[in-house]
Amino acid sequence: MTMIMKTYLMFFLCSMMICAASTDKIVKSRKEIDVKVAQLLSQMTIEEKVGQMTQITLQAVSEKQGTKDQAHVLNDGALKDAILKYNVGSILNVYDAAHSISYWHEIITKIQNLATKESRLKIPVLYGIDAIHGATYTKGATLFPQAISMAATFNADLEKQCGEITSKEVRASGIPWNFYPVLDVGRQVLWPRFWETFGEDTYLTTAMGLSYIKGAEGDDFSEKNKLAICLKHYVGYSAPNNGKDRTPAWISERMLREYYLPPFEEAVKAGALTVMANSSEVDGISVHSDHHILTDILKGEMKFDGFIVSDWEDIKRLYTRDHVASSPEEAVKMAVMAGVDMSMVPQDFSFYKILLDLVKKNEVPLERIDDAVTRILRVKMMTGIFENPYPDPSMSGLVGNSENEEKNLQAAEESIVMTKNENNILPLKKGTKILVTGPTADLLSVLNGGWTITWQGDEEALYPKKANTIAKALKQKFGEKNVIYSAGTGFAKDVNIAETIKLAKEADAIILCLGEKSYCETAGNINDLELDTVQLQLASRLAELNKPIILVMLEGRPRVINSIVGKADAILIGMLPGMRGGNAIANIISGDAVPSGKLPFTYPKYSNSLYHYDYKPLEGAEGNAYDPQWSFGYGKSYTSFEYSGLQLDKNTISDTDTLNINVTVKNTGKVAGSESVLLYLHDMYGSVSRPVKQLRGFKKVSLKPGESKAVQFTLINYDLSFIGRENKRITEPGDFLIMVDDLSAGFKLK
Ligand code: BGC
Questions:
Q1: Quick count: other Cβ atoms within 10 Å of Cβ 562?
Q2: Does 626 reside within a domain?
Q3: 55 pocket-lining for ligand 1 (C-beta < 6 Å)
Q4: 9: how many CB neighbours lie within 10 A of its CB?
Q5: Whole-model pTM?
Q6: Which atom of ligand 1 approaches the CA of 182 most closely?
Q7: SS3 sequence, 49-84?
Q8: Burial level of 34, CB count in 10 A (0-12/13-18/19+)?
Q9: What does the DSSP 8-state code read for residue 481?
Q10: Is ligand 1 within 6 A of the CB of residue 523?
Q11: Do residues 585 and 649 both lie within one domain?
Q12: What is the distance between the alpha carbons of residues 208 and 200, in angstroms, rounded to a whole number?
């Protein structure tokens, strides 16, 4: 059991003691639900069952004139057919862009009217949405930092609150199901979905994922401000060999179990009831066809009793793209028999028709269909939509309210990682004359990334007028007359470098905002991790002026900037800090906020030297060297922290013992600040080579100048375990080291 599991266990035990009655209620209602599901199933025709397993996109039931400016029109006839003729169980997303809350209410009401009033068995439709960093597709929603930036806060409570707020705003829109959180461990920085992950570490991913789920689902996701979540993308999607989206990962069973499965295992234990399958292949096998991964491991070993939804069109792709099935029919049979319960078809009814035919011909047994439909109906009932299928208009005011926005600003501020601050150039004094330049200085899309208002997140015109870009926020902070904005370059081409250099000569300091445009999935593929040449040139030209340069990086993955790191006096790695990111960066630059973010990944120095912080001994031995730009966990503050008194309560422990660890952290600087205390473990010898260090705990503390706090951690046997030579989780007796900052202490496992 990990520390995260322990926290859950404690939480669970407390709830059991304090409100045994409510636990009883949940267990009882779960039993009641299973009885109701069985009764309903017994009345269903094969057509109705196969329909429940079918999910279509809203596009499939829309008029084709849906446009980015919101002139979306439902095709009422097509919607009627989908629900009454094809009995579809689920609909997802939008035609192309966010809807107003009132329009959402109109659409959901139409859908549920058909499903719960006109269909034979009155089964409500389960509407699902990609609300990744907030309610993506609801206008005016609170849009938080993306996962990679939330991970940089190393603040699990904030992640929980992000889950709570997202659930409120999505439910307020009338939608009960969210395709989130992403529990893919981000161990391939080239991958264009890297920013959707909580970074490279399994422990951090698990902890943030569980916190999100706790906030999003609460104890009972039928509550009107909670959502059913969907874990994705199960499993191994985040490690494509060539770095491109939806390409093969070569992950052995041991590495799968060591690095990629644990976040899913823990989330299933925490009650997650829907899982989306990985769109690509692991170890040569398309995951949508992999019975071992989907059924043996997830439904068997992990005892997952929710349902598996396919990813977008991925059952068809077994035939059209992967060629592991030689016909659309074989593809459907393969996926359903491997364990997929619902198909995100999503443009047509081909899955419905094919599966119906396969069942009639006894090629897919009815038991498999009944199992899938039972799982789907169970989740539907648990969301409460059988009782309350309609949106609640009284919740509309929850979307993007000021309380939520304040939390969002806090998250954005805590997510910014300062990796350099020579001669304490930051914070800049009020009144400083600033030139702000670069392709990410005056856009909102670059703060937010994909899944923002649209899928690609790049429709600048649809962004809220009241939100601030970095340039706008700096003007508000330092005064219009003190801040000049000049583009300098686009992402890949010179816009006005010469003019920008002239303007820079008049400034006291240059805020140089570089990075990536907004992208999502395959559209974000790159061929080179190094930042675009023209952006590096802008930095070099500005550096010739010998003015202080504050480099701000907004990016979905760590683009290599080694050639300009030495030219900047201060560096803020902003990644994707969300809709309040402009304000957060201006607050940090002015000193109204103190940086406390730490990197949740290892920032590479060279495009061809990609490391993880938890590298193996042989990667640092005999001429090999771990040489990143900045390591995982790195991040500076405007104050300083000193660690002392690292103590373990035992020198030797047995398999059943817990190990309590204490350490004191003191703010030795002049301003108040927050510090995430990171605890690492090193297993000195192991039959499978052990990483040089592994994160085993983190806690964020706020300290006034001169203040000290004692921080406690508890480790148990699971924390010392690894996947052994037999591909089973084991611990081995021997020596271990605990490391916190520069301190270390050893202990033995008997
Ligand atoms: C993505 C998923 C997403 C789904 C529905 C797919 O392309 O891989 O993450 O949930 O689309 O929008």
A1: 15
A2: no
A3: no
A4: 12
A5: 0.96
A6: 9
A7: HHHHCEEEEHHHHECCCCCCCCCCCECHHHHHHHHH
A8: middle
A9: G
A10: no
A11: no
A12: 12
pLDDT digits (tens, 9 = 90+) for 99-143: 999 999 999 999 999 999 999 999 999 999 999 999 999 999 999
Q: Are residues 322 and 425 in the same domain?
A: no
Other beta carbons within 10 angstroms of residue 718's beta carbon come to 16
Q: Is the CB of 130 under 6 A from ligand 1?
A: yes
What is the 95 CA–ligand 1 centroid distance (Å)? 14
Q: How far, in Å, is the centroid of ligand 1 from the Cα of 311? A: 6
Cβ of 179 closer than 6 Å to ligand 1, yes or no, is: yes
Domain end call among 344, 370, 398: 398
Looking at the structure, tell me whether residues 556 and 685 fall in a common domain: no
Q: Which two tokens stand for residue 359?
A: 């069942």
Considering the domain boundaries, does residue 203 fall inside one?
Answer: yes
How is residue 608 written in tokens?
């061809």
398 is written with which tokens? 């929850």
Atom of ligand 1 nearest to the CA of 196: 9
- Whether 581 and 727 share a structural domain: no
Are 314 and 230 in the same domain? Answer: yes
Q: Report whether residue 312 contacts ligand 1, using a CB cutoff of 6 Å.
A: yes
Residue 532 has pLDDT above 90, yes or no: yes
279 Cβ below 6 A of ligand 1: yes
Q: In which domain, by residue range, is 324 found?
A: 46-398
Nearest CA to 661 out of 541, 747, 564 is that of: 747
Query: Does residue 149 contact residue 415 with C-beta atoms inside 8 Å?
Result: yes
93 CB within 6 A, ligand 1:
yes
Residues 613 and 651 both lie in one domain:
no
641-648/231-234 β-pairing: unpaired
Residues 225-260 have pLDDT tens digits of: 999 999 999 999 999 999 999 999 999 999 999 999
> Which residue of 311, 315, 317, 344 sits with most ligand 1 atoms within 8 Å of its CB, as the best mutation to test the pocket?
311
Residue closest by Cα to atom 11 of ligand 1: 312
What span, in angstroms and rounded, lies between the C-alpha atoms of 335 and 318? 8
- The Å distance, Cα 50 to ligand 1 centre, comes to 22
Element of type H or E holding 215: helix 202-217
By C-alpha distance, which of 103, 40, 38 is closest to 66? 103
Beta pairing partners, 46:
none
Q: Can you give the CATH number for the domain in which 714 is found?
A: 2.60.40.10
Of residues 482, 540, 529, the one with CA closest to residue 508: 482
List, by residue number, the catalytic residues: 311
Q: Are residues 357 and 267 in the same domain?
A: yes
Could you tell which of 55, 237, 287, 312 is best to mutate to test the pocket of ligand 1, judged by most ligand atoms within 8 Å of the CB?
Answer: 312
For the segment 274-303, what is each residue's pLDDT rounded down to a tens digit?
999 999 999 999 999 999 999 999 999 999
Q: How far, in Å, is the centroid of ligand 1 from the Cα of 293? A: 19
Task: Judge whether 66 and 96 are in contact, CB under 8 Å.
Answer: yes
- Does residue 569 have its Cβ closer than 6 Å to ligand 1? no
Quote the ligand 1 centre to 568 CA distance (angstroms): 38
Query: Both 329 and 433 in a single domain?
Result: no
Judge contact between 473 and 154, C-beta under 8 A: no
**How far does residue 310's CA lie from ligand 1's centre (Å)?**
9
Mutate to test the pocket of ligand 1, among 179, 315, 347 (most ligand atoms within 8 A of CB): 179
Judge if the beta carbon of residue 246 lies within 6 A of ligand 1: no
Å from CA of 573 to ligand 1 middle: 27
Query: Token pair for residue 425?
Result: 């150039």
Kindly report, residue by residue over 310-363, the tens digit of the pLDDT.
999 999 999 999 999 999 999 999 999 999 999 999 999 999 999 999 999 999
- Give Cβ neighbours of residue 248 (< 8 Å, ≥ 6 apart): 240, 241, 280, 281, 282, 284
Q: Quick one: which of 354, 286, 390, 357 has its CA closest to 54?
A: 354
The CA 165 to ligand 1 mean position distance, Å, reads: 22
- In the predicted model, what is the mean pLDDT of residues 6-24? 46
Residue 193 Cβ inside 6 Å of ligand 1? The answer reads no
